[in-house]
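Troubleshooting entry. The earlier prediction with xylulose-1,5-bisphosphate gave an output that would not parse, so I re-checked the input for stray whitespace and re-submitted. Clean input:
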Amino acid sequence: MHTINTHTRSLKAVLFDVDGTLADTEQDGHRPAFNAAFKEFGLTWDWDIPLYGKLLKITGGKERIRFYIEHYMPEELDRPNLDEWIASLHKTKTSHFKQLMERGDIPLRPGVKRLIYELRDKGIKIAIATTTTPENVTYLLESALGKQALGLFDVIGAGDIVPQKKPAPDIYLWVLDKLGLEPSECIAVEDSENGLLAARAASLATLITINNYTCEQNFDGAAAILSDLGDPEQHFKQISNGSINFDKNWVDTQILEKIVKESS
Ligand code: XBP
Ligand code: MG
């Protein structure tokens, strides 16, 4: 009997994006942290919710500030040592983000904690592939999962460790290299078009969980687009009918294995 050999692909690792995927950090975390830094630097800049949505197209906080200056405050381009000034403004932003995370007001998204512990139990590796500053990963995860949080992850790839941020594939390629795995053995979990482009350019099957900032974006090439990871008592909604048929409404190891097997 002729059978299609889909069993050669097996799930060895899950690569998680951070901002917007593990937690909704952008609107009430990064955005107010940027605004607090602007205030501390005596600037009258204010990134409101819609403006921040536009600026999110530029990944990386320093890159985002530079883009804002170029397009909204071009007179600031004459500032001496602009790169250093942006770096120090961004450092102040990171310290405000830390304070916000320490308050613990931003929870992990539905299903994230359950899935992380389930994957660990099943011996599947978990990694982080994010554009955000490495310290931010620590602040968020320790606030949400406790002091042992970073030890749960096999590889953490973040920020300026690679030359080009998402949508370039660099961070995903870096993490795959550290894991010592092929993309066909892994799946990425992302929330944004830039994240999807980065993961797909690294040949990774990609599961999208949308949020308010990303729900209108183009997710062509995603294996599935869901409202969130869901939980047995809080089901996800499938946003578009991809090729994957789900037999339950929460993402678990079995569903991720199925996506990896059925992805090309
Ligand atoms: C999101 C980003 C980051 C954050 C801000 O990354 O693009 O720039 O908005 O963090 P991802 P920094 O979705 O890949 O986690 O200011 O530290 O860059
Ligand atoms: Mg993201």
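This one parsed fine. The mean pLDDT is 95.
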